[in-house]
Amino acid sequence: MSEMNETTDAILGLGLVLRQKRAGHRIGLDAVLLAAAGAGAPARRIVDVGAGVGAVGLALALRHPSAEVDLVEIDAETAALAVENAERNGLAKRARVLIADVTAPAARRAAGLADAAADLVATNPPYLAAGAARLSPDPARARAHALAGEGGLAEWLRACLALLAPGGRFAMIHRADALPDIYAGLGRRLGDVAVRPVYPRAGADAIRVLVTGVKGSRAPPRLAPGLTLHEADGSATEAARAIHEGRATL
Asked: What residues contact residue 226 under an 8 Å CB cut-off, 6+ apart?
């Protein structure tokens, strides 16, 4: 890919610098929030499902300096950028990039991804169901925004939880209106499920939810304190700034 079609951008306050496509799906707030949600407890093996160019997985690798991280991405061109980004940030020895359809068990095994082995699985899944909306004509961008296959979000979540070891932690970000589908997809495989609403400003409806939990836990679900992103004047709240700058986790 020509360098004219790519940009190099810094995210978080962790010194993480990432190469990404100029057009198409770009790293945004969701990746920053998910990385903060996954950084709260120690982890030795981390899997970033739907890793894109590696923003979340590499940020978690910096947060967990002894962890091994697998970045799972289905698009080969995007995965190549993730490889470059791991090298650029000095993480190539601890971060593997695996090209695989995570929802297919045989494809996971062929890529070298073991079930029930991860201490932490983080995912920012495509937010749309296949056929539910008009998608970009760019194939990579369309894959980033819409789930393929008939299984939809439930199939994606089933694959993520299959990768997680008993007692391992799960973290995801999604649209707030997808919460019923998230609960249905998680079923009884995850306990201590905490939902943290993300509000664009005080008094507004939530636009995102951060969902975390522990595989095999019997603890009941709970609603965590919400995160408000902007003050009334449009400036970032102190909590949002602290997350963006890498000073805080969720």
From this structure: 196, 197, 198, 199, 206
Q: What is the pLDDT of residues 95-116, one digit of tens each?
A: 999 999 999 999 999 999 999 9
CA 63 – CA 4 distance, rounded (Å): 31
Q: For the domain that residue 150 is a member of, what is the CATH number?
A: 3.40.50.150
* Band (135; pLDDT cuts 50, 70, 90): very low
Cα 213 to Cα 193: distance, rounded to the nearest angstrom: 4
Q: Tell me if 167 is assigned to some domain.
A: yes
| Structural domain containing residue 140 | 3-244
For residue 213, which of 166, 143, 144 has the smallest C-alpha distance? 166
pLDDT of residue 133 exceeding 70, the answer is no
pTM of the entire predicted model: 0.90
Residue 162 lies in a domain: yes
Closest to 144 measured CA to CA, from 209, 81, 207: 81
Number of domains in the chain: 1
The residue whose two tokens read 């902007």 is: 230
Evaluate if residue 120 carries a pLDDT over 50.
yes
Q: Is 234 left (phi over 0), alpha (psi -120 to 50) or beta?
A: left
Quick check: 141 pLDDT over 60? no
Find tokens 């995570």 and name the residue: 102
Query: In Å, how far are 64, 145, 149 from 131, measured between CA atoms?
Result: 38, 11, 10
